[in-house]
Amino acid sequence: MAPKKAKRRAAAGDGGSSNVFSMFEQSQIQEYKEAFTIIDQNRDGIISKDDLRDVLASMGQLNVKNEELEAMIKEASGPINFTVFLTMFGEKLKGADPEDVILSAFKVLDPEATGSIKKEFLEELLTTQCDRFSPDDIKRMWAAFPPDVAGNVDYKNICYVITHGEEKEE
Length: 170
Fold this sequence. Notes:
Elements: H1 2-12, H2 26-39, H3 49-58, H4 66-74, H5 82-94, H6 99-108, E1 116-118, H7 119-128, H8 135-144, E2 152-154, H9 155-164
């Protein structure tokens, strides 16, 4: 009986790692599949150094060094098929603290429990404390999490995205 299950697993292409699929909602898996398909430029089912070079070039990054591409590829334990790709994202997301821990940290900065903090205050903390954000980091953060017209940042949304990988649908 075991050989049949192993054959079925191999045929399904999950390499015995189907638990990675339980880490994500179906809509997330579909989004990752679309991203994988975009990156897999030669459509062979494996992301290679050449695929990375081509997709980066299509986004305007033309002078990527071989060492950088090799470092990206080496993040995986072997050839990067879709299951490995999904596992890599799962491991990155799993490395984050649980949502309640991150929320608790933000709540310390929000004594009135409004669910938001001032952009200027957060920016000052992120650029002057511990692992300091660079100006580019700050620019990317505000692009991803723009403050409202009053200059408030919804930290609950930031926590959700850090731990779930996408914005809450309201």
